[in-house]
Amino acid sequence: MMQQYRSNSYLFGGNAPYVEEMYEAYLDNPGSVPDNWRAYFDALQHVPATDGSDARDVAHAPVIESFAQRAKANALGNKASSADLAVARKQVHVQSLIAAYRTLGNRWAELDPLKRGERPKIPELDPAFYDLSESDMDITFSAANSYFGGETMTLRQILQALRETYCSSIGAEFMHGSDPAEKRWWQERLEKQRGKPSFTAQEKRRILDRLTAAEGLERYLHTKYVGQKRFSLEGGESFIAAMDEVIQRAGANGVQEIVIGMAHRGRLNVLVNTLGKMPKDLFAEFEHKASEDLPAGDVKYHQGFSSDVTTPGGPVHLSLAFNPSHLEIVNPVVEGSVRARQDRRGDKEGAQVLPVLVHGDAAFGGQGVVQETLCMAQTRGYRTGGTVHIVINNQIGFTTSDPRDLRSTHYCSDVVKMIEAPVLHVNGDDPEAVVWATQLAMDYRTAFKKDVVIDIICFRKLGHNEQDTPALTQPLMYKKIAAHPGTRKVYGDKLVAQQTLAADEPDSMVKAYRAAMDEGRHTVDPVLTNYKSKYSTDWSPFLGKKWTDACDTAVPLGEWKRLAERITTLPQDFAAHNLVQKLLNDRATMGRGEINVDWGMGEHMAFASLVASGYAVRLSGEDCGRGTFTHRHAVIHDQNRTTWDEGTYIPLQNVAENQAPFTVIDSILSEEAVLGFEYGYAAAEPNTLTIWEAQFGDFVNGAQVVIDQFIASGEVKWGRANGLTMMLPHGYEGQGPEHSSARLERFMQLAADNNMQIVQPTTASQIFHVLRRQMLRMFRKPLVIMTPKSLLRAKDATSPLSEFTKGNFQTVIGEADAQVQADKVKRVVVCSGKVVYDLLRKREESKAHDVAIVRVEQLYPFPHKAFAAELKKYPNATEIVWCQDEPQNQGAWFFVQHYIHENMSAGQKLGYAGRPASASPAVGYAHLHQEQQKALLEQAFAKLKGFVLTK
């Protein structure tokens, strides 16, 4: 009977999922399925496709339908006995049981070191759910679709193998993926080992050594620096063993750099026991003896570090990113840093540089930047070849007193299912399982270049920090923790029981580590002290420089014309849209100097001249290729294109034979993660003009954490220089409260210690020069550009060709109207941005030629010398008025008034002209906008009233 079953069992119905899985395997590799299946599917290849094609991958529906029809024919023809049918049904049920364990077995895995919860009721994991009973346990079934080591196995053997594989110390989630090859990869790697890794005695000793180091540092600090915050790793020591395996296996696989991002928990342990920071240096920070050469500095558990260590594949450079208390915000910063390093190496697959992100369980599931960063993982502009995520899962989160309030998902890692990333949940009390899970994760990333998660389920021996008393809110949990001997003790006893170690060796290792701590010696061996990669970045040329350092940003006329021709010429037979072709024709005319240059051309020529000179340009944002206001058109689309993968042309990539790269990316709909990514990119690449452009300046609100914690303060806290450029469309055009203001006042409030540059250029030549200045000057600070909207096409904002072939960025632009005679000026109106053109028109209408108009193009650092020189031109002026578009409590007013006052002469008065204070950035009614605009212009020329500051 069994022989007959084996020859035709696959022809009976009710097994559609199993058949489809087998068919997926066949399509990927015909040799991977049994002969009878292969013959059956081979025959199906001769079934004509419904579209008349001869494609090998026929649709699944006809396969299942063919299977069902043949099964029905067999039943009607009485070709099999009722006994055969019964056995066939049981085989189907066995396959369903296997599929259930692959999908749900993780829910039954032994993952909690504290053993607090009972195994949940999951009927699909019980053979009885499939009408399989004890009487079936010794019946032999086909196991050809598994990797347990036999073509046939008894049900008892299959069930044991499933539980060992999927319900031991590792709970694997991978069946949510859509790639059959990846699912089979996981099945093979897990099922062949039956969930039981095999390590040599030497490898086990190394694991115990890392556990000893992890526990040893925490206990040393706990006794020597009582009560000081350190965010202890006790209870999660296996994480250090995992990190050690990441580095060693990465190095063996050819990785040469690893960039690590993590928050607080275990950070000091990683610094000492993974990166090799000298313990004595850490102790100095606890004793407040560390060097204080930064304007602000930061706490020790925010600090970054870098080192070089040896691995089986050669030296590996390790970088731990600096990270503020906003936990997961470091994720995109790390990804950007990694992408910059990969680009510098030409590492398009991410084989040489690896990102590793370490998460807490509550933050991983709770903070939105995680999702935003994951969303970028496989996009062209942001992919890094797969990230290894490690979760230090304390099972308690931050201060939540009830697990039901932690999240709405079963696992904290469920967010990664949006990108089909596999997850290995692993019991932190089984360090061998943790290390094996790390090996699997690293091998998966190497094979598929995708993200993977290791969720180390452990506990937190102390409170959120060392001053907390967690038993106040978690009495049951902390009774369990108090009784737990510690992971190192559990594993050490296990190795002694196995006779892998002598009885006294675990304690000897503890004493040896303690001695190393007392002497302040390295605990990572060996750390390379004199190694320097040819790909390392040297920031020294940019440090200690001043923003006032001279820099020639003009472009010679001949080079200008050559570049202009290159960026306005399309390949033969390339059909640009009529509107784009007209724009290119106009730009060609501008390039010849026949008409003034507009904003888009000025910007393009800045990029072209930079890449031609060897400076790479990277521009990203939500609509960068075309430009939100259709002024850019850096990417031109062939109107005759037939596929998504072709039919675009980027002129800026074709300006010179050996030019530097020009990259333009239409980003995902994210501000926080994308801006964080670009900050990270700029932090690792000072010789690339890295730009993030907001679709509307207001949208930068969604990235405020990046601005506050990295862009504004990264240098004074951590000494990290950065040349990121932000372009934020800003201006009052009557478009309402969310499309007017880039919140200039927020940047002004953050401006101190010469930490950034804030500019608001008003002409095409100004945007040209400021972009070139950002790279040509040996000075790297974040550059915030308030870019216009209406000025992009305004004739007023165009510039003659001479302003590009001569001159530099002007921090202050003075009065240019010949009708305004300096000795007759009674009032100077000072402004910044688009409003200057409104003021010029208003003055012309009013014939108020006794009013001079001065525009401040650089708001910070404030150009005192240039501004004072302008004011001195008007010795008879008694009134200075600051005029702005923004409401009085917003914009630059409250910040520049002190700078203006500092440069006023005795007896001069300072007043304000602009919108009244408002809780909203702008009004939403067009008529009210016009009324306010009219009123502020009248104020600029009317008698001073309200707040007046006198020198």
UniProtKB/TrEMBL annotation:
<dbReference type="InterPro" id="IPR029061">
    <property type="entry name" value="THDP-binding"/>
</dbReference>
<dbReference type="InterPro" id="IPR005475">
    <property type="entry name" value="Transketolase-like_Pyr-bd"/>
</dbReference>
<keyword id="KW-0560">Oxidoreductase</keyword>
<comment type="function">
    <text>E1 component of the 2-oxoglutarate dehydrogenase (OGDH) complex which catalyzes the decarboxylation of 2-oxoglutarate, the first step in the conversion of 2-oxoglutarate to succinyl-CoA and CO(2).</text>
</comment>
<dbReference type="Pfam" id="PF16078">
    <property type="entry name" value="2-oxogl_dehyd_N"/>
</dbReference>
<dbReference type="InterPro" id="IPR011603">
    <property type="entry name" value="2oxoglutarate_DH_E1"/>
</dbReference>
<dbReference type="InterPro" id="IPR032106">
    <property type="entry name" value="2-oxogl_dehyd_N"/>
</dbReference>
<dbReference type="Pfam" id="PF00676">
    <property type="entry name" value="E1_dh"/>
</dbReference>
<keyword id="KW-0786">Thiamine pyrophosphate</keyword>
<dbReference type="GO" id="GO:0004591">
    <property type="term" value="F:oxoglutarate dehydrogenase (succinyl-transferring) activity"/>
</dbReference>
<protein>
    <recommendedName>
        <fullName>oxoglutarate dehydrogenase (succinyl-transferring)</fullName>
        <ecNumber>1.2.4.2</ecNumber>
    </recommendedName>
</protein>
<dbReference type="InterPro" id="IPR031717">
    <property type="entry name" value="ODO-1/KGD_C"/>
</dbReference>
<comment type="similarity">
    <text>Belongs to the alpha-ketoglutarate dehydrogenase family.</text>
</comment>
<dbReference type="Pfam" id="PF02779">
    <property type="entry name" value="Transket_pyr"/>
</dbReference>
<dbReference type="Pfam" id="PF16870">
    <property type="entry name" value="OxoGdeHyase_C"/>
</dbReference>
<dbReference type="InterPro" id="IPR001017">
    <property type="entry name" value="DH_E1"/>
</dbReference>
<dbReference type="InterPro" id="IPR042179">
    <property type="entry name" value="KGD_C_sf"/>
</dbReference>
<feature type="domain" description="Transketolase-like pyrimidine-binding">
    <location>
        <begin position="597"/>
        <end position="794"/>
    </location>
</feature>
